[in-house]
Amino acid sequence: MMGAIAFQKDLGAVHSCAHALSTVADLHHGLANGIMIDHVMRFNLPAATAKMAELARVVGVDGAGDCRRASPRARSSTGSRR
After folding, report:
1. Are the CB atoms for 66 and 56 separated by under 8 Å?
2. SS3 31
């Protein structure tokens, strides 16, 4: 277990959590990343408002808090059910 924790260092919160989630829940790694991104963005929003605002501008939504809404729309446009 400690080896897995060491491996996950510096991968980023989404990717790091997805490794654990895919193992525990027997999910495809890409799906686990897709599930985690909304949660990590919500967690990081207070500390990364300027970056989220830029992301929101690039993806065409109204504000930093709304950039999380782009992720579910992107998933639905690709036919993903999660």
Report:
1. yes
2. helix
Could you tell me the residue range of the domain that residue 7 belongs to? 2-77
Which DSSP state fits 61? Answer: -
The number of domains in the chain is: 1
Residue with tokens 């808090």: 65
Tokens of 18: 């997805």
CA dihedral sign of residues 78, 67, 41, 72: negative
Higher confidence at residue 75 or residue 27? 27
Which of 46, 25, 49, 50 lies closest to 35 in space, CA to CA?
Answer: 25
The rounded distance, in Å, linking the Cα atoms of 53 and 40 is: 16
User: pLDDT tens across 35-61, in order?
Assistant: 898 888 888 889 988 888 888 888 777
- 82 falls within a domain: no
Q: Which residue has the higher pLDDT, 32 or 71?
A: 32
